[in-house]
User: What shape does this take?
Amino acid sequence: MFHISLKKTLVCMVSTMMLGYAGLGSAHDAGATMDPSGTVAAFTGYALVTCFDDGNGPADYLVASVRDLSSPEDKLLVNLQIIKGNRAINTTDPVSGDADYSPEVKVHGGNGVYLLLVNKTKAGVRSFAVSYHCMTASNAHTGTDITVQQFE
Amino acid sequence: MFKLAVLNYRTFALAGILGLVVVWQSAHAHTRLKTPVIQENAANHGSNYNDVVIAHGCQNTTDGASTISTLGTVVVFPDGKDSIITTGTVSGTAHTGTLSDFVTNWGNPVTIIQDGSIFSHQEYIQDSLGNKLGFWSGGGSKLKAGYRGLIPFTTAGVVIEPASCAKNVTFIVSIVDVCEITDSNGFSNETVQMWTPAVGSIYDGEGLHGYDSPATLTIARSIAPLPSSCGEGVDVFVKPSAAQLNRDLRIILDGAQLWPK
Assistant: This one.
């Protein structure tokens, strides 16, 4: 049973990548498709990003940005928010479908757990990519983990 | 002459002791994590590099010795959603709240370390959101009976809720070493070694070797000090639900379930 062909292995690898793409993945650049039915204005992706010292030093802040990969649609834009403790911030990708991310935003919360939200301004399918990185005070990349809590 | 005799006696005695130790270890070694206790949030250490240690193969029916090689292993952590939470001991007081009362960021604990030194295939076990709750590794060459196997992976940093009284949080890790592909009715000491908690799943394995003897990963509180009102603090234990094990503890390849049949 375990004599699995190379072909099957490769098919499986692709399947796994697709599965990972269905939600926010665990790399520091991840993406997915919000509101695939195009009817849920309140669709929200909610993840916990944990910043920790991976040897490069303790985290000082989380920086993130979002890129709307779908074609432009009137009044339909993708937003990203970071929340930790008593600090929060928002960014919006102002041009859908181009090569640019939204402006980067940061919350200086040190090590620990940050809330990361992705949502949009009205109903409609939106494919998007998120870039998120925990950084030290000297702007070195440090430990970054993600857990997806909600995608609906 | 006398010295030689003493030496021989000591040598034999030592050999006997060593022999007993080997037999004892062989009889008692279970599949476990190589590093069963880690610090909270991996502070200063990066990701927590770990291994599943497969201690022995399956048992033949002739003399019960572990002479049957292992085809693969399946590893699942509690998802923290419908998990069974207790305090004090693993069978202690049931906690009626949620895991977030004790842990702030549980949900995506596993990253595979690519390694084909024993088994040729590695795949994640994920929830519907893509969170990685475990993995399986199998195929290729078998892990020969009588040898031990290290299956590498890492766990994500865990943050204990600062306001909680948790001094340690222990996640009960469910592992099945598969020696023969069967359906759940075919589970026996010849076909599987199940290191799972007895929570009423199809993987309980009552009466089998390793019954209700799962592996564990303990997170020791190391960031926020215990609130003074907590006294010595409490130990927290997190087991997967039967529903989670029945759903997640499987080998699926290319959309097809390979194990159990």
About this structure: Strands of chain A lie at 29-34, 45-52, 61-68, 78-84, 87-92, 105-107, 112-120, 126-135, 141-151. Chain A has one domain: 6-151. The CA atoms of residues 94 and 102 of chain A lie 7 Å apart.
